[in-house]
Amino acid sequence: MIRQLSIILFLITLCFPVDKAGTSAAKFLSIGVGGRAVGMGGAFTAIATDASAMFWNPAGVARISGNEFYVEHSNWLADINHNYLAMVLPLGNSSSWGLNIVSLSMPEMNVTRYGEEYTGESFRAGSYAIGATWAANLTDRFSIGFNGKYIREFISRSAASGAALDVGTLFNTVLGPTLGMSISNFGPKMQMNGADLLINVDDVSNNSKINADLSTEKFNLPLTLRFGISNSHDIGAVQLLWAVDAVSPMDNSEYVNMGFELEFLNKIYLRGGGKSIFMSEREELFTLGGGFKLELFSKQFIHIDYAYEVMQYLNDIHKFSISLSN
Q1: Cβ partners under 8 Å of residue 112, min gap 6
Q2: Contact between 146 and 135 (Cβ < 8 Å)
Q3: Sign of CA dihedral 61, 66, 71, 76
Q4: Is the pTM of this model over 0.90?
Q5: Is the pLDDT of residue 69 over 80?
Q6: Which of 25, 45, 89, 301 could form a disulfide with 226 if both were Cys (CB 3.0 to 4.6 A apart)?
Q7: What Cα–Cα distance (Å) separates residue 156 from each residue in 153, 169, 201, 301?
Q8: Chain-wide mean pLDDT for the chain?
Q9: Nearest to 126 by CA among 106, 151, 149, 101
Q10: How many domains does the chain have?
Q11: CATH number at residue 130
Q12: Whole-angstrom Cα distance, residue 216 to residue 193?
């Protein structure tokens, strides 16, 4: 069963042309979510045990034992806001389902034209994806999950929309380490359309104006294949969790993410990691983070996590996430 599913996931990657040109639609789908995951350098494919699993590896949703509500916010690059909202509900038959929303937004901007700097007009731009996840534990060691999502990007009066599928698996080996694999953003190309692309052109036959639409190019989604391994070790009163991910994106070179987490008293966490190792023209360097868990009521917990991401040329990023679970 496991070998057959691995072959199926591999064949899915062959259905899309692999083009490393560096251009794709809906690039916001490549921004990592979750204070814990980002704090560990994005090495989360073989962990994925909170509601951010719907981004990294939807199979992890099956291993969330209780209800969970999750929210994350970060001031990303150039005054851009990145947000993630998710909810997970177990179904009671070794399966779970979840809902998630990820968005990228920016402040309203003024319209300028050649020779007309102050037009009095303004426009907005942003992106969002709304997803639904189902995941199940097929055995006591093997889990599989699917996340379908609707994607939309817009700028002023033009927009592009599409749909995509994420597929993931988790497997606990008999030797101890956990293996994870996921394919993200499998779907058709997206193309920008809208009123801003409507223009008037001359009809050479009678010298009158006719309406025409500018044609925009279609772009692939940022299809990404991830393989991960993780394991935990008890070191006295401290538990060490480490993870390594090998990542192959469609629009860039392959790279490796590595991270660790130190857990103290099952309440306090320290994290660190390296991102995009071996990537050509690497921008993301390393991450640091931490968090803590508090019991609010009987079996009701709040998790607060923070991650600090160091960039090579652009501004560094602060990411916060809060989850409520039982």
Answers
A1: 118, 119
A2: yes
A3: negative
A4: no
A5: yes
A6: 45
A7: 10, 39, 22, 42
A8: 88
A9: 106
A10: 1
A11: 2.40.160.60
A12: 8
